[in-house]
Amino acid sequence: MSKYRMVLVTASSKSEAEKIAIHLVKKALAACVNIVPKIRSVYGWEGKVEISNEVLLIIKSKKSLLKDLEKAVRKVHSYEVPEIVSIEIEEGSSDYLDWMESLLKKQSRKK
Q1: For residues 72 and 59, what is the distance between their CA atoms, to the nearest angstrom?
Q2: CA angle 42, 83, 86 (to 5 degrees)
Q3: Is the whole-model pTM more than 0.85?
Q4: Which three-class secondary structure state does DSSP give residue 33?
């Protein structure tokens, strides 16, 4: 099992997505966050089917940081129930994973 994760989070706007991304990178909870604009989400909420324009964040992090990452997202997110879904990174470029590790080690030293 890999220690690296991609975490998917949706946000209401580009500015909210950037706020979340900057917060996570500054706290060394994410090595990188890709922001994918203009997604359309269809979901159930309070007994209704909702359709919303959203922005998708693809966050690169580590399994050991997920609880802290979730707390940090919830701190700055506008949604009552934000999407925070973790996907295991099974394989990747060793150079990229080493780069992630070097950034995310900063968070480990902060604890």
Answers
A1: 13
A2: 120
A3: yes
A4: strand
CA distance 56 to 41: 10
The structure tokens 């802290």 sit at 68
CB-based contact 36:58 (threshold 8 Å)? yes
pLDDT by position in tens, the chain (length 111):
689 999 999 999 999 999 999 999 999 999 999 999 999 999 999 999 999 999 999 999 999 999 999 999 999 999 999 999 999 999 999 999 999 999 997 755 555
The answer to whether 73 and 16 have CB atoms below 8 angstroms apart is no
Q: Hey, is 46 helix, strand or coil?
A: coil
Q: What domains does the chain contain, in order, with CATH numbers?
A: 4-110 (3.30.70.120)
